[in-house]
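Thread: Newbie trying to understand structure tokens

Hi all, I'm a second-year student working on a class project, and my supervisor (Dr. K.) asked me to get a predicted structure for one chain before our next meeting. I've only ever worked with sequences, so writing a 3D structure as a token string is new to me. If someone could post the tokens and maybe explain what I'm looking at, I'd be very grateful. Here's the chain:
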Amino acid sequence: MYASIAAALALVASVAPAAADAMKAEEARHFVVGKVFSYACFEGTRGAGRIYSDGSVAGTIQLRGAGPVRYVRLPPNTLRVKGESVCASVRGLPFEPCFNLAKTSPASFRGSIYGLSFAYCEFNRRGRRIDIARKPRQSKDLPLRAAIDAP
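---
Reply by user tm_fold:
Sure, no problem. This is what the structure looks like when written as tokens:
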């Protein structure tokens, strides 16, 4: 349950606009939906994820930057627009947090929960995939003849 809450907050939370352009809900939707973002939060939580047009979220999370990296998938309507705000509905959370969203570059934004501007995450656009595990690099095998002929 806590991983789901942290994932929703981390994948959506955005810092109060400090020297950045505040994004309203529709602009934020256009900026993030369908794209992959890596994120790093103020207390060390990090990962990568994608927000879909139905408000569902899929990605990875590593709480406080330690321990295992977990895959998390949150259902449709987890993220929703309320007026000009983006808010999250997470099972087990007794309230529905809304977020300050601020574009910091053409490929990044910051976020925080309304009223908690110190609790922020930085999001940076990545490629099209979320790397959950990397394939080990293959070492080049020496040709058998070269190994036999070597002095």
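A couple of things are worth pointing out once you decode it. The first strand starts at residue 21 and ends at 22. The CA atoms of residues 22 and 87 lie 15 Å apart. Feel free to ask follow-ups in this thread.
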